[in-house]
Inverse folding.
């Protein structure tokens, strides 16, 4: 069976595509909506907004999340802000400009039509959220405040202190709660989707595990919306939450959904550096800090050495001996260059031996100038909670001494392949938010994931899902269909045999998983080489074997966190190989994917538009088989592909 | 790198209906890196327990940066441990003395039944929010965001109340196991903002009724909730809730 | 949307009732203390005069007393109702007790144990009423002349009773609980009605300490005054 990747976008001028789609789409009548059950997996920004909106429209919605409450999805942790083309600051912003910035920021590896729609919808999001009572930051006059973010020269980022994701998610959670209260959404907490049920080639249901009792459950529906977030925890250490995982997407992948651009991973430049092997996660310091913080390392190696061994502090380094490397190298964007550029440069100076913490893997983010200019209170007002968090974790006070930061895995641009309707190649299976690959190309600009999650959930899926249902008319179905029993049994057998074969072993899940993360960060991280990737693949396979044969897992079948983690880690051990494989295949550098073999003289990423301007969509061919690569050629009619430059 | 050892006692309970006991895990609590967080210490203990073929300690966590509200337990008689404005995932072992006795147990409240070890069921909180913790607007075209003018002071105050992470520490710390700070925080957010105005009476009466029905205690104005709140939500939220409720009562039907 | 009955039987509504009845009781205490200050005088004339004046209200006094009794009962009954439910809200406590996290928390005996201090006050009250209100009167020889008229010599009765240590000391002890009750109650009633705001918080709470001390010491001084025979020493 050969797969044709059709984006399904309407013809016509870019700016009119979304309207054209809406004009032509088919509708489900109000009376019929009630008869449709929609399964929404995940309650982050994408899932909560989709579930609420679909229920408002009249669909019967079942929503699922791993945490004990839908409010805890990892969107809650987003700090910095959300982009929108409101153009309140009157600084020249427009839909086109946001579209352009996002395409360019993504290093010309995303689909024009999707990105343009995202930019168009960005203004609605702010209106919607304000109407919900989201307490965005405001000016004294009562209007909304904005700030600037990496990769943009306009101030279009709306925020709520350093807790924007929290406030947006609580807004969506409120909308979801209203529908739960009205009886239109059934909410299933502490559930993990472990498989997809297909009937006649269409996605018709899911199998979930009740994480408290350990029992498997079947849920049937007319469509399945995967809103399960990103797979950044394949690196073990990342800014993602403990329960963030790739399992739902991976299981769908194994049922036939194509996985697109897995190697596009964003390593975020401003995170608190790792300091020991007890560490379970890395904490992000919002990129908004780069608005006021200045990144530097000492110019001289001996100064860096002195700082590392504690004989000097940042204050002892004279201004002329400080290397504000982003400001000198990129005069027009300065500290606000996109994330991939900032991360790679941090790596470069640390590789050069000028890192500033014990491990040698950290650079300064200094607020001295900003505090002198605006006063400590103004800085506290902007970043108070971030500074507080930093101090709590490190014990250092950033009002007095510069922060130390280092890049950490943060966001995954890749994900399930979707068309313009956000539908995967499996009819009836949609992917929203970070779980899909759609809008960010090879690199995501700051403050645009929240925008995408909400655009997908509030404004795109309500239309495209209706169109699917009205066009394909999936038949009524319930859990008694034999396919549900079959799939549930497969999952049960898998759990049983997994437990049985992991009664004893000399190591633990976390140990193997942590080592997987190390392999990934070192060789499939910020800078990749063909040799490194090949050796990574070999090591991943060894780890997979070790995991299969030598890992001990607690045996109880009810509430068992380590069993949950074991399944997620097992999926990551498979996914990791695909990541490396994709990175190996892509013989160019683009955005977050930097192949050392492909760089310009001054160390910038060099794309190869002739051969690689495509979406790499991988097909699972079975256990032990090689994935098959399908390509969706990217067509650029509205922007000219140029070498990205932030100089 | 400095390490510490502790006298560690942890509440172990196999399931909602089993009685549960305190287990002394001191032998597993040796040589803990002092820069580890409290939960990372528990991770380490669990690795050691599993190596010994014992059941690991079950505890909830997710973001591990103090924002999701999934973590929470009582450490030495204090919800989230001794540091103010801190969740237990952000509590670091450097704040404990070497050799210190550490007693860990779940949040205690009838409305938060124990699921296992330190894991409790906080779904009662969602139910309170479902009863009105929102502005009833559907998705769709909305007036321009700047058509609501909200002064910075007001919007900052609303934000401060909205910063609640729903962890349940307020309930755990309240001698009455009251959910007033949690409920009051949401009511305050919408009481302050114009968007919340049209349904403020309905909101406060339904949320309070739900809170009462779920088996939380009443508020006797002790204020330990505020001290235990990792987001330092002010007791004023409760005063505002009481004000809102009084207004709703006086307005009658 | 929120019928009065429903509102007043909710946990918030019951606290409105606690606050209203509590502050009314404080009002009573003000008059009670003001009058009782007269007990510090060595001569009973003024105090007995006050008592007689009240007595002369006749049926009105009975009504007032019943009202006051009702208020106490009401305050106590609502308190009991609240606490029965709240006791069920935490069936299992913390292993080694709870510790406060400080800050503005009022965690401590006065705030946590209003039901104890209140309960003690209630028990005391019953005894107190039997002791003095229905204690020995003119018929038993406690007679004094007030403005030429015969009146009950309550002043002498009190003075005599408080010279007995087994009466004076428990009385004094109970007043400590009254102090504790007011220490929290004086701030709490405002918060219960939603009338508190952070900027007044500290002042009102400090004022509560003053009020509590004034009442506790004011009442507590009387038994000691006679136990130690201060009037005798002053002579
Ligand atoms: C620390 C941090 C800071 C960030 N800051 C910003 C920012 O300032 N601006 C910005 O635009 N973006 C930011 N991002 C990125 C952004 O927050 C995320 O990309 C976005 O919120 C993802 O939303 P989502 O709805 O796709 O997924 P999530 O919010 O991750 O939600 C995933 C949901 O799926 C559920 N789930 C997962 N697997 C399963 C399963 N198998 N079964 C059932 N349920 C499952 C989870 O329980 C959860 O409910 C940040 C990210 C991080 C980690
Ligand atoms: C001299 C008599 C009394 C006075 C002046 C008094 C005063 C007060 C005041 C001002 C309050 C604060 C109200 C609030 O928090 O809103 C209060 C609370 C309370 N009173 Fe009294 N009271 C008296 C007697 C009693 C008695 C006899 C009881 C009997 C049980 C009692 C039990 C309580 C309780 C339990 C509370 C706290 C309610 C809560 O949990 O919040 N009090 N009192
Ligand atoms: S784990 Fe999220 S707040 Fe602690």
């Amino acid at each position: 069976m050969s797969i044709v990747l059709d984006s399904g976008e309407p013809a016509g001028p870019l700016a009119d595509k979304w309207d054209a789609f809406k004009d032509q789409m088919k509708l489900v009548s109000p009376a019929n909506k009630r008869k449709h059950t929609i399964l929404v997996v995940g309650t982050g920004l994408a899932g909560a907004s989709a579930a609420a909106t679909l229920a408002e429209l009249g669909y019967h919605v079942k929503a699922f999340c791993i945490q004990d409450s839908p409010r805890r999805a990892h969107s809650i942790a987003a700090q910095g802000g959300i982009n929108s083309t409101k153009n309140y600051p009157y600084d020249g912003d427009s839909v086109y400009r946001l579209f352009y910035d996002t395409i360019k920021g993504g290093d010309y590896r995303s689909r024009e039509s999707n990105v343009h729609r995202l930019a168009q919808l960005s203004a609605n999001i702010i209106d919607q959220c304000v109407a919900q009572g989201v307490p965005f930051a405001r000016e004294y006059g009562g209007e909304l405040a904005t700030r600037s973010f990496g990769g943009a020269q306009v101030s279009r980022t709306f925020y709520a202190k350093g807790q924007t994701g929290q406030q947006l998610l609580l807004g969506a959670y409120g909308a979801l709660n209203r529908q739960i209260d009205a009886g239109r959404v059934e909410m299933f907490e502490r559930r993990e989707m472990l498989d997809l049920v297909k009937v006649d080639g269409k996605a018709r249901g899911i199998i979930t595990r009740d994480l408290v009792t350990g029992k498997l459950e079947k849920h049937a529906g007319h469509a399945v919306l995967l809103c399960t977030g990103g797979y950044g925890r394949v690196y073990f250490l990342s800014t993602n939450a403990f329960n963030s995982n790739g399992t739902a997407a991976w299981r769908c992948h194994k049922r036939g959904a194509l996985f697109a651009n897995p190697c596009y991973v964003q390593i975020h430049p401003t995170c608190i550096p790792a300091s020991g092997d007890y560490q379970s996660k890395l904490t992000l310091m919002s990129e908004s800090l780069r608005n006021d913080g200045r990144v530097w390392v000492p110019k001289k190696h001996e100064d860096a050495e002195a700082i590392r061994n504690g004989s000097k502090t940042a204050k002892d380094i004279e201004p002329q001996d400080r290397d504000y490397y982003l400001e000198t190298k990129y005069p027009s964007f300065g500290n606000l260059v996109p994330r991939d550029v900032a991360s790679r440069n941090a790596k470069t100076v640390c590789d050069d031996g000028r890192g500033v913490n014990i491990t040698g893997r950290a650079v300064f983010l200094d607020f001295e100038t900003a505090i002198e200019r605006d006063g400590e209170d103004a800085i506290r007002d902007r970043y108070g909670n971030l500074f507080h968090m930093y101090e709590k974790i490190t014990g250092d006070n950033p009002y007095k001494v510069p922060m130390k930061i280092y890049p950490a895995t943060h966001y995954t641009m890749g994900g399930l392949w979707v068309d313009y309707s956000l539908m995967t190649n499996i009819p009836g299976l949609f992917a929203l938010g970070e779980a899909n690959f759609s809008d960010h190309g090879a690199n995501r600009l700051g403050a645009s994931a929240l925008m995408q999650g909400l655009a997908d959930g509030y404004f795109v899926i309500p239309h495209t899902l209706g169109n699917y249902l009205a066009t394909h008319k999936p038949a009524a179905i319930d859990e008694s269909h034999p396919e549900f029993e079959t799939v549930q049994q497969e999952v049960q057998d898998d759990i049983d045999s997994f437990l049985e074969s992991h009664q004893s072993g000399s190591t633990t899940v976390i140990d193997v998983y942590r080592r997987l993360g190390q392999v990934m960060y070192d060789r499939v991280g910020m800078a990749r080489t063909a040799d490194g990737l090949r050796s990574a693949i070999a090591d991943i396979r060894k780890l997979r074997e070790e995991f299969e044969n030598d890992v001990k897992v607690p045996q109880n079948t009810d509430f068992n966190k380590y069993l949950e983690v074991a399944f997620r880690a097992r999926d990551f051990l498979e996914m990791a190989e695909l990541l490396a494989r994709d990175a190996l295949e892509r013989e160019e550098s683009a955005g977050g994917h930097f192949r050392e073999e492909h760089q310009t003289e001054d160390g910038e990423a060099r794309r190869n538009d002739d051969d690689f301007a495509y979406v790499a969509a991988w097909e699972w061919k079975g256990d032990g088989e090689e994935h098959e690569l399908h390509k969706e050629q990217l067509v650029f009619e509205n922007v000219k592909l140029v070498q990205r430059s932030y100089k | 790198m400095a390490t510490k050892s502790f006298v560690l006692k942890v509440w172990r309970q196999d399931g909602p209906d089993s009685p549960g006991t305190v287990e002394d895990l001191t032998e597993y609590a040796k040589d803990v890196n002092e820069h580890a967080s409290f939960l990372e210490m528990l991770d380490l203990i669990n690795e050691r327990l599993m190596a010994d073929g014992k059941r690991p300690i079950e505890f909830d966590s997710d973001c591990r940066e103090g924002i999701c509200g999934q973590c929470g337990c009582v450490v030495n008689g204090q919800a989230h441990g001794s540091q103010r404005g801190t969740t237990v995932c952000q509590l670091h072992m450097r704040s404990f003395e070497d050799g210190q006795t550490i007693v860990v147990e779940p949040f205690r409240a009838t409305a938060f039944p124990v699921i296992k070890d330190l894991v409790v069921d906080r779904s009662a909180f969602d139910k309170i929010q479902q009863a009105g913790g929102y502005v009833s607007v559907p998705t769709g075209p909305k007036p321009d965001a700047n058509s609501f003018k909200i002064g910075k002071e007001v919007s900052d105050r609303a934000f401060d109340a909205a910063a609640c992470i729903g962890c349940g520490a307020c309930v755990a710390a309240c001698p009455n196991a009251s959910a007033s700070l949690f409920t009051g925080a949401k009511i305050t957010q919408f009481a302050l903002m114009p968007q919340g105005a049209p349904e403020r009476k309905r909101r406060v009466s339904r949320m309070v009724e739900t809170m009462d029905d779920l088996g939380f205690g009443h508020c006797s104005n002790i204020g330990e909730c505020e001290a235990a709140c990792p987001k330092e939500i002010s007791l004023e939220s409760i005063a505002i809730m009481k004000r809102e409720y009084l207004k709703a009562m006086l307005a009658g039907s | 949307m929120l019928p009065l009955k429903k509102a007043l039987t909710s946990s918030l509504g019951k606290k409105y009732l606690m606050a209203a009845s509590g502050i009314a009781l404080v009002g009573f205490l003000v008059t009670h203390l003001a009058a009782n200050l007269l007990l510090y005088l060595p001569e009973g004339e003024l105090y007995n005069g006050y008592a007689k004046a009240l007595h002369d209200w006749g049926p009105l006094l009975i009504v007032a007393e019943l009202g006051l009794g009702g208020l106490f009962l009401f305050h106590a009954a609502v308190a009991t109702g609240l606490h029965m439910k709240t006791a069920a809200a935490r069936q299992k406590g913390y292993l080694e007790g709870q510790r406060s996290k400080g800050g503005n928390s009022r965690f401590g005996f006065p705030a946590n144990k209003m039901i104890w201090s209140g309960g003690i006050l209630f028990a005391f009250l019953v005894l107190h009423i039997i002791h003095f209100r229905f204690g020995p009167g003119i018929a038993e020889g406690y007679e004094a002349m007030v403005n030429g008229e015969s009146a009950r010599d309550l002043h002498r009765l009190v003075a005599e009773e408080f010279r007995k240590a087994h009466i004076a000391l428990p009385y004094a002890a109970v007043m400590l609980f009254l102090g504790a009750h007011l220490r929290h109650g004086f701030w709490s009633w405002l918060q219960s009605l939603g009338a508190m705001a952070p900027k007044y918080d500290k002042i009102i709470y400090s004022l509560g300490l003053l009020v509590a001390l004034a009442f506790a010491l004011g009442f507590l001084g009387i038994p000691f005054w006679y136990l130690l025979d201060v009037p005798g020493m002053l002579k």
User: Anything to note?
Assistant: Chain C touches chain B through 52 residues (CB under 8 Å). Residues 59-89 of chain C form the longest helix (31 residues).
